[in-house]
Design goal:
Blueprint (H helix, E strand, L loop, with lengths): L1 H29 L7 H19 L2 H25 L4 H24 L4 E2 L9 E3 L14 E3 H19 L1 H9 L3 H6 L4 H27 L3 E2 L6 H11 L4 H23 L4 H4 L2 H27 L1
Antiparallel strand pairs: 1-4, 2-3
Helix pairs in contact: 1-5, 1-8, 1-9, 1-10, 2-3, 2-4, 2-8, 2-9, 3-8, 5-6, 9-10, 9-12, 10-12
Length: about 300
């Protein structure tokens, strides 16, 4: 029971970084725009959060600045892709490479260090202490989590409500498969897409900020370590639906948590660290098989 509680606690602690970014990937999927730059958005967000927290002493200001900066990056991505017809895959690769380089450069420029930066002045995200859950099996995993864990869970519900219960959600869902119909209804598709990609950037920034100020209170080179790609896989796992995406992010966070716990019991770290990525690849293969079977079934019935 104690082991289950520890794995659940670790899963919850790892969940927000992937979940925020996967929600960002989800909404761009809805408008038929593949943004593989989630990794770069997250990495830049993680650095900005640490830098602003260090200089201002406020985690909330750090998160706010991070969200704004990553939103602007999203808008930049949207304008170049939609107006100037820049290839989104090439732009995604460029953003990921740019993020790796610019964070290394500014870490050396601002803090005079390479590889990793940590300081007592960095203020982490606040935690919600639920003392009454202490000592209760399983539930005690919820007793001392960052408030951003709960914010991530709330955002899943908010995204679901917006997408399926509001006019703007209907427009976003219609923009992907049938943009001409949306345009004919008098709605600016270009502006709508720009807003969606901007919000996607904000969510990725939130994921990065949680990674560097919630999960840790430091920044290291390439600290996202593929989480942006895992977030994209979680969004695909959930078929671009908020609840399904949550389960995808939870699955990958769980496999990461098992990996971390397994290392404490002497399993070879090189072998164990592959587990989250193996789960990601196997999940994508399984999804591809399921989709292919559904298509064949649809053709045979059609």
């Amino acid at each position: 029971m104690e082991m289950m509680t520890m794995v659940l606690e670790t899963t919850l602690r790892l969940l927000p970084a992937i979940l925020f970014a996967s929600l960002g990937g989800l909404i761009t999927q809805r408008i038929k725009l593949v943004n593989l730059g989630l990794e770069g958005f997250m990495l830049i967000g993680a650095f900005i959060a640490v830098a602003v927290s260090y200089y201002t002493g406020s985690a909330m200001i750090a998160v706010l600045v991070t969200v704004l900066c990553c939103g602007l990056m999203g808008l930049f991505f949207a304008v170049f892709n939609l107006r100037f017809k820049a290839d989104n895959i090439v732009m995604s690769v460029a953003i990921n490479m740019f993020a790796l380089g610019i964070t290394k450069y500014f870490m050396n420029l601002l803090f005079g260090v390479r590889g990793a930066f940590s300081a007592p002045e960095i203020v982490g995200l606040p935690k919600l202490r639920l003392v009454f859950l202490d000592g209760i099996p399983i539930l005690s995993a919820f007793s001392n989590l960052s408030v951003f864990v709960y914010l991530a869970l709330i955002l899943v519900l908010v995204t679901h409500i917006i997408l399926y219960r509001t006019k703007i959600g209907l427009r976003i869902r219609a923009t992907g498969p049938n943009p001409m119909a949306v345009e004919t209804a008098g709605i600016g598709v270009y502006r709508l897409k720009c807003w969606v990609v901007t919000v996607s950037g904000m969510l990725c920034g939130l994921g990065g900020a949680y990674l560097s100020l919630g999960q840790l209170t430091m920044f290291t080179d390439n600290m996202t370590n593929g989480r942006g790609f895992v977030a994209m896989a979680a969004s695909n796992f959930g078929n671009a639906a908020p609840i399904g995406t949550f389960w995808g992010a939870a699955l990958f966070s769980f496999s990461d948590a098992v990996t971390m716990r397994a290392q404490l019991y002497g399993f070879p770290p090189q072998l164990i660290q592959m587990l989250p990525y193996v789960v990601t690849v196997l999940t994508l293969i399984a999804m591809a098989i399921v989709k292919e079977r559904r298509m064949k079934r649809g053709i045979s019935h059609g």
